[in-house]
Amino acid sequence: MLARTVVLFFLSGFLAQAAACAADVPQNLGPPTRDNPKAPGPLQTAVLAGGCFWGVQGVFEHVRGVRRVIAGYAGGDKSTAQYETVSAGGTGHAESVEVTFDPARISFGEILQVFFAVAHNPTELNRQGPDVGAQYRSEIFYVDDAQRQIAQAYIAQLDRSHAFARPIVTRVEPLKGIYAAEDYHQDFLVHNPHSPYIVFNDLPKIENLRRELPSFYVTEPVLVARSDGVNRP
Questions:
Q1: Are 175 and 74 in contact (CB under 8 A)?
Q2: For this structure, is 52 an active site residue?
Q3: 3-state SS of the chain?
Q4: Structural domain contains residue 117
Q5: In a domain, 213, yes or no
Q6: For residue 14, which of 23, 2, 5 has the smallest C-alpha distance?
Q7: How far apart, in whole angstroms, are the C-alpha atoms of residue 209 and residue 116?
Q8: I need a surface site. Which of 15, 60, 161, 201 has the fewest CB within 10 A?
Q9: Residue 161 belongs to domain spanning
Q10: Which residue out of 52, 66, 71, 140 is catalytically annotated?
Q11: Smallest Cα–Cα separation from 54: which of 113, 2, 116?
């Protein structure tokens, strides 16, 4: 991750590209027409990959009804679920987040609405902004058939409505497992708000959440270090 910050200062045009990507919010991105109704029940999980997990985790830590967000690796084997190995490519892993949420407060479809609207750019293939490689791909790892159907239907809905200028390339595949990333990656955005990478790539995503989807936004983030969900909106 240190390399990302160093590269930020040396690549020509990097800052402009990163800021433009982070601010690329589609207009009139409606909610999914196919979704589970919100209802009381056990906490549920959604596993999503959308580029560097710092920013995706940071966004969902500000979403209503979310109880915990863990940065991790999904798509590959447990034996290769380490940052240096994943960053080298070829493991099958994608930097991902596991979002634990209250189904009475937010639905899986609404989680996807946030994911597509502000958490990343789903039209970029095997990259997000300055980060390149399959480990930065856009993917939804579904945990059951209901999630699969909702995800596939929503992607088709967004493509039909031309919500994005280019086709969505997000993959939808079953979850084989997600493995927590190293401790120093957890809540990285909160602990490093002045990092140039965070400033130009990720803080605009949280501002877009607040501005574009205000009904989903909560000011106080739920952090890994204190994610019991007590008094969480």
A1: yes
A2: yes
A3: CHHHHHHHHHCCCHHHHHHHHHCCCCCCCCCCCCCCCCCCCCCEEEEEEECCHHHHHHHHCCECCEEEEEEEEECCCHHHCCHHHHHCCCCCCEEEEEEEECCCCCCHHHHHHHHHHHHCCCCCCCEECCEECHHHCEEEEECCHHHHHHHHHHHHHHHHCCCCCCCCCCEEEECCCEEECCHHHCCHHHHCCCCHHHHHHHHHHHHHHHHHCCCCECCCCCCHHHCCCCCCC
A4: yes
A5: no
A6: 5
A7: 11
A8: 161
A9: 43-193
A10: 52
A11: 2
Provide the domain count of the chain. 1
**81: in domain:** yes
Give 25-63 pLDDT, tens digit per residue: 555 688 999 999 999 999 999 999 999 999 999 999 999
CA distances to 120, 130, 195 from 7, rounded to whole Å, are 20, 9, 12
Q: Could you give the CA distance from residue 232 to residue 187 in angstroms, rounded to a whole number?
A: 17
Q: What is the CATH number of the domain that holds 154?
A: 3.30.1060.10
Residues near 148 by beta carbon (within 8 Å), at least 6 away in sequence: 142, 172, 174
Measuring CA to CA, which residue among 138, 1, 153, 144 is closest to residue 74? 138
pLDDT tens by residue, 76-134:
999 999 999 999 999 999 999 999 999 999 999 999 999 999 999 999 999 999 999 99
Q: Domain for residue 13, yes or no? A: no
Close Cβ partners of 191 (under 8 Å, ≥ 6 residues apart):
none
Query: For the chain, what is the largest distance between any 2 Cα atoms, rounded to a whole number of angstroms?
Result: 51
